[in-house]
Amino acid sequence: MKKTKLTRLLAFLVTLMICMSLTMTAALAAETDTAEKTAVEEAALSAGQAIQAEVEDPVSIFKAEVVRLVNLERENAGVAAVRELDTLYPLADLRAQESAASFSHTRPNNTRCFTIFGENDLQYKAAGENLAYGFRTPEAVVKAWMASEGHRRNIMDPDFSYIGIGYYVNESGRIYCSQLFYTPRSK
Known about the structure:
The chain has helices at residues 3-31, 34-54, 58-76, 88-101, 115-118, 138-147, 149-156; strands at 83-84, 124-133, 162-169, 175-184. Strand 3 and strand 4 (175-184) form a beta hairpin. It has seven helices and four strands, in the order H-H-H-E-H-H-E-H-H-E-E. Mean pLDDT is 82; it is low at 13-37. Helix 1 (3-31) packs antiparallel against helix 2 (34-54) and helix 3 packs parallel to helix 6. By secondary structure, it is an alpha+beta fold. It is globular.
C-alpha cells in the first residue's frame, strides 16, 4: 500500500475510534452520575490520545531525531544547540527532493543550493547544507555526516543558529535527507 493510502487509512481509523469513543462516552454518561461520567470521559480522551500517538507521522519522528542527534553532537563538543525553524522544513524537503534528481549542492536549475534562501526571502549571515541518501535511520545518517569532514564541519559550526531537516523517498524507495543550517542576517 502506498504511503499516502496508508496515511489516509490510519487517519480514518483514528477518526473512527475517536468518534466511537465519544459516542460510547455519551451513552455511558447518560446512565452514570457525575463522578462516573468524568472518569469515562477521561478514559475516552486517554484512549484517543494513545491511538493518536501510535499513528504519529514517522517522517516527523525521523526529522526530530536527526535534530536531537545533531544537538547531542554539538553539546558533546561544547557548541550551542541549533533550534528548529519551521520555515526551513519545506525548503529542506524541497532540497531533499531535488537531490534525488541531482545529488549535488547545485540545484537542478544549475543554481547554488543557497539560492533557496533568497527565493524564500530569507537573508542569511551564515548558511549550510548537508545531503545524504540511502540511510534508513536517523542514527545512520547522522553517523555518516559526522564521519565526513565537510558535513561534520556544518553540524559543528557555532555560527549556525537554526536547522531544518528534509526527507524525501523516491519511487524506488530510496530515502534522501537534507539539513539546512541558517543564521539570519542582522538588520
